Amino acid sequence: MSQVSTDMAHDLRTPISTLIGQTEVALSQTHSVVDYLALHGELLADPQLLQRALANLTANALCYGERDSTVRIFNRASALMVENQGPAMSAEQQARIFDRFWRADASHHQGSSGLGLSIVRSIMRLHQGSCEMHSEQGVNRFTLRFQY
After folding, report:
1. Which backbone phi and psi does 78 adopt, to 5 degrees?
2. Exposed end of the chain (fewer CB within 10 Å): N or C?
C-alpha cells in the first residue's frame, strides 16, 4: 500500500513540476503581438482541473515524445491541443489510450501508473466535454473539447 501511495504521489507531482518549468521557460521568451492575438477566447472550466488535464497531457508528451522534439500547446476551433512528435499509435492503441491503467508499451512506462490520461478523460467528462487522441505520420495530438 505504501508503494502505491508513493507511486501516486510521484505521478501527481511530476506533471505539475514539468508544467511549471515549461511555463517559466515560455514566459521568459519574447513573444510578438501575433502570438498574443492567437490566444484570445473564453473558456469556462475549473482552473485547477484544467491545469491538471494540461499537466498530465504535457508530461505524457514529454515522456513519450521523440527526444529533443517540440511539445506544442495551442487552441484551435474551440479546443485545446497538446501535440508532440513520436511513434505513431495504431487505431487500437488510440481507442484504449484513455483507459485506466492501460499503457501502449509496458516496457516504456517509466514508473507511471497508467492513470494520467484516464484522469484527463474524467476531468473532461466533469466539464461535459471530450478528449480525443489522433496519431498520424509521427505526430500525436491530444484534443480537449469544452462545451461553451
Report:
1. 60, 35
2. N
The per-residue pLDDT for 23 is 62
Q: Is residue 148 within 8 Å of 83, Cβ to Cβ?
A: no
Strand segments, DSSP code E, in the chain are 72-75, 79-85, 130-136, 139-145
Q: The C-alpha cell of 106 is what?
A: 509496458
3-state secondary structure of 10: helix
Torsion of Cα atoms, 42 then 20 then 133 then 131, to 10°:
-40
Produce one character per residue of 53-76: b if its CB has 16 or more CB atoms within 10 Å, e if not: bbbbbbbbbbbbbeeeeebebeee
pTM of the model: 0.67
